[in-house]
Design a protein that fits this description.
By secondary structure, this protein is α/β, with parallel strands linked by helices. 42% of the residues lie in helices and 20% in strands. The protein has eight helices and nine strands. A seven-stranded mixed beta sheet has the order 3-2-1-4-7-5-8, with helices on both faces. Helix 5 (140-157) runs parallel beside helix 8 (222-241) and helix 7 runs parallel beside helix 8. The radius of gyration is 17 Å and the shape is globular. The two termini are 33 Å apart.
């Protein structure tokens, strides 16, 4: 019996919460780039319980695009929850995610996709790997806390990455299914959790240098999200001890 080829080469997942002011411009850039690749693709926007006009705007401006799906979470569950939903619903051979503000340019998808096709199971963007370029820095405190969280993630979880929290990552479909089906955390520490599970399962992970332009209209609640993320590292180790990643 012959096996039909997968009609979708890559899926791009975009979590969105109250993105009415930015999502239109971002989707225009994304569609322009993806249409130029000559590869079958899909875009999945996962709305994380927005209370503004995000969903209505997407429907009005992009509702006729067959490559676009919008999934609406009934209540806000956090970026990790939105991404878990989208990543597990992606149909592509390769499944990637990007932040809605495109702080990492959408053109970076080509570099991650090339790594996934040739060298690894998981490709993660890094703002600190050799060759990375910061065009607009985050505020000093946010940048310092991000570096601190990467250091603590490496120390607490036995990882060795230059940038854990960059919002552009890609996965081969098998790795995506296994990792995100085991994900348990929904706050900002989910990045560390996914990379830790990848480490436990022996997946090959490659860091890809990216360009970064900070968008000051961030949804990060600095101290609350930072404390929750640090607590998440302890939860990850507890989950491992309790056998929840098997």
């Amino acid at each position: 019996m012959s096996v039909e080829p997968n009609p979708v080469v890559f899926s791009l997942i975009i979590p969105a919460y109250n993105e009415e002011r930015r999502i239109g411009k971002s989707l225009e850039q994304i569609f322009r780039f993806c249409n130029a690749q000559a590869l079958p693709y899909e875009i999945i926007v996962v709305d994380d319980g927005s209370v503004d006009g995000t969903v209505a705007l997407i429907g009005e401006r992009f509702g006729e695009w067959p490559q676009l799906r919008t999934i609406r979470q009934p209540v806000r569950g956090g970026k990790g929850a939105a991404l878990k939903r989208g990543m597990l619903e992606g149909r592509g051979d390769y499944i990637l995610f990007s932040d809605a503000d495109l702080s990492v340019p959408i053109e970076t998808l080509s570099a991650l996709l090339a790594e996934l096709q040739q060298n690894c199971d998981v490709a993660i963007g890094s703002r600190r790997a050799p060759g990375a370029k910061i065009e607009v820095h985050q505020p000093f405190l946010r940048e310092a806390m991000g570096r601190g969280f990467t250091f603590l993630s490496n120390f607490a979880l036995g990882l060795r990455y230059s940038d854990v929290t960059c919002g552009f990552k890609g996965f081969c479909r098998a790795a995506c299914r296994e990792l995100f089906s085991r994900q348990r955390l929904h706050n900002w520490s989910f990045d560390s959790e996914i990379l830790f599970i990848a480490h436990l399962k022996g997946y090959r992970v490659t860091e890809v240098s990216v360009s970064w332009r900070d968008d000051r209209a961030t949804k990060v609640r600095l101290w609350k999200d930072a404390l929750g993320s640090f607590w998440g590292l302890l939860q990850i180790r507890a989950n491992q001890v309790l056998g929840r990643y098997r």
